[in-house]
Sequence to fold (27 residues):
Amino acid sequence: MNKLTHQQLAERIARDIPEGAYVNLGI
Fold:
């Protein structure tokens, strides 16, 4: 399993979910 950096994780989340939704998660 590859370790993701916080930046990589944030970028993946931003791609995986609708734009704007991650703002509601407080990211």
